[in-house]
């Protein structure tokens, strides 16, 4: 049965065929299922970002390397998305979506493998237990405990290569599996939903999918409360706590949970039909005038004859060039690229930023992002869709709405440059003097002949308010502990601690920063800024859908996502990671090789990290202003043409000539 005959058959009230009453013949059911699938897909991809700082510490990665890892799934996605989007309605889209979801599921299970093939997590056990040897206190006359041997360096490098290779393979599969999910889903909804409801459905879809990263951060918060080797060690042998700088959470466990959820949500797609009856509306006039976009962008009907892949490859450059020449399309995509780059910085490194700025645990940082920032963005997306449906905004009004949202976002984000903490003063023999700006002191002399390990990292807080990277580098020669609780109470006789009358003592753990009271206003402002920026999501996407030839809708969406990946999602995490690395004061050491950063210059980190986000927001604002100006010009021309019928007919003829049907394009090729 063809789509047309099926529609007429199911629309006949006298017919009650079982296939027509199937829940899988309802576009509303598809919207629900697709929202759940995209939520679970983004739960999996977002989980990596929620645990990125933990993975950095576990395997000694820099932020730039973790940024490359975070963006690596876009490579497979970018290569395939245009060609997959080309197929559009030519294939069974629901089944392609389901198949892609199964690939995403496999990627999730692959990404947890490093935990099972690597050994236990080893950290500096400087008297973490009363039963461990006390090599990390100062032992006068001892030789340096240097682990910088060729064998050790080679072993660490090989392990890191193995881990990165597995994670990169998982990321590539994650990108490949995600290729058909969003473009096919959106085009499927737009094809079979009424034009009145399509913006609302897509707005709801975007809002639900935004919950994916939110749930991912909440899942990360829950998983990182458990010790990384919870499956390898009994609870009695786990002596670290989440507040300890050396703590590593069970980052791998979330991948298993998320991959299982993706597998479950992929099942319904194998039951949806290739084509379903078009959703009906009661008000036909409203159907034609929804958003004013149909009148503004007149396009030709869908050609009936499909083209082969070889013909598509030949004609694709011309279609791409024509699409990119569309001023509304390219300006909106460039604005979205700036917003996507900003989202990259928020999604990938926001938790790490909060950890460093306000001295909170990774688990709590993820919880705040998942329960505050993500719901705020979701509310902004829903608000944008509701405003469009209620007021039936014209194209120019859609552009104005995007401008207002981004302008408010920039104004609210500016104070974030000043809400944060300075780096605590710390003591180390190897800090970067160019970036430290007096935040550190050299302890080479007072810890001389203590035999301190070059890779030691067991922060303690001296009575003088200075944080020392280990008891040995504080010159501590004695330790007192609670035998009953099996924990260190304090260190004494610390030669480097200069506080008079304190007995030169120090307590285990970091001194932390001293401006936690700024954390609440920071979160409130960042949530408001994200919500305002998100109001532009639905109107900007609907401008793209209504500004292209309906016959090339799927392809236009594919080109859009390809450009967003090339311009934002691929370079974005690497850019933000490089900016973060540029503020590192002290790099960790593992077998003599550089590992994860231990201390950042918090002021520089805040200025560069937030400043780069604001820069992208300003870029998006500029492009949305340009969109508004173009739409305003089109509206003026349309009003003038309506006053002159002959000019209106001439413009319609010229506009139709600009849009070459696919069949004609093939013959030209």
Would you give an account of this structure?
Strands 2-1-4-3-7 form a 5-stranded mixed β-sheet, with no helix packed on it. Helix 18 links the parallel strand 1 and strand 2. 50% of the residues are buried. The chain is built from 25 helices and 9 strands. The longest helix has 42 residues. It has 2 domains: 525 residues, Growth Hormone, Chain: A (Up-down Bundle), CATH 1.20.1250; 83 residues, no CATH class. The N terminus and C terminus are likely disordered. The protein is elongated. It is of the alpha/beta class and 669 residues long. The two termini are 33 Å apart. Helix 10 crosses helix 20.
Mean pLDDT equals 77
Determine the N-to-C terminus distance: 33 Å
CATH architecture of the largest domain: Up-down Bundle
What does the radius of gyration come to? Answer: 29 Å
Which structural class is indicated by helix and strand composition? alpha/beta
CATH topology of the largest domain: Growth Hormone, Chain: A
Spatial order of the strands forming the largest sheet: 2-1-4-3-7
CATH homologous superfamily label of the largest domain: MFS general substrate transporter like domains
User: What is the number of helices?
Assistant: 25
Oligomer: single chain
Percent of residues in helices: 55-70%
Q: Let me know the largest β-sheet.
A: 5 strands, mixed
Spans where pLDDT lies below 50 across 5 or more residues:
1-9, 11-19, 126-133, 145-149, 284-305, 657-669
